[in-house]
Every structure is written in C-alpha cells, then in structure tokens.
Write a structure and sequence with these properties.
The chain is mainly alpha-helical and about 160 residues long. A two-stranded antiparallel sheet has the order 1-2. Helix 1 crosses helix 2 and helix 5 runs antiparallel to helix 6. It is elongated.
Length: about 160
Amino acid sequence: GANVLAGILLLLVGFLCHWVASLISLSSWDLAVRLGFQMNNLTTEMQVYVRAFAVADSLIGWVYGLSGIGMLWNKTWGYQTAWFGLILVYYAINFLAWTHLRMKLGYQMTVDEPPIRFTWFFANLITGILAVAVSWDYWSKSIYRSRSGWERIPET
C-alpha cells in the first residue's frame, strides 16, 4: 500500500540522494562536482553554506533509510521515524527558493535546469508529504480515545 510507496521514496530520495550524495560531497568535493551534486568556483560564503547543508544532510539522511525500511516492513519504528519527512518538505521549499536566488547571482549547477530543478523539488515535496501522511494515518488508526486519555492499541 501507501507505506510501501513511502518506504521506497524515502530510500531513494531521502537516503540515496540526500545521505549518499552528501557523504560523497564531504569526502570528495571534486567527485561531487563531476557528478553534478555540487558546483565549482564558489565564493567562500556560498561554499560554507553548501558544505553546511551537506553536513546536515549526512547527519539526518540515514534516518530516511531507517524509516524507509521500517515502512516497507510495516514496523512501528518506521512510522515513528517517518515524521522526519517534514524535513524533506522544508528542503523542497528551501531548494526552490535557494536555486532561484542563486541563479539570479549567476551561480549555475546541474540541478538548475528546469526539468531537473522541478523534478527534485517535487520528489522531495511528495516524499515528505507522503511519509508524514502515511505515518499520520498509521497513528490515527492505532490510537483511540478512552476515559483516561489517549492509549495505544496493542499491535496484533
């Protein structure tokens, strides 16, 4: 169902694209430039920002892999970690604004081409929204209102 699709998207977009690409960027900037993940000839200020983003992605990106596997296996911890999908929604919006402003300053990257730029935006946005929606659905079906408050229904 939707958990399988969300799990696959989290593995592809969140784990593979964010985590692996960021690790490549941090370990070999030249390789990342050749692969189109990063750009060459950045100002110092721009380089600091781009590298900081790679650090953040490398620190958070492994959670997408964990969540993706958990959702594929229909495990509670997969749905719990799927809330990190909100970061992908933030990233999508930030990416679109950042590329627009960066292009106005004359900095071009492979991802700036319109089909790639909007595909990457929607891949992050859809993955993040789907992961959170599937997680929300899971938790809303597994919780009921009792006299003593919200209680977790035991898993079968």
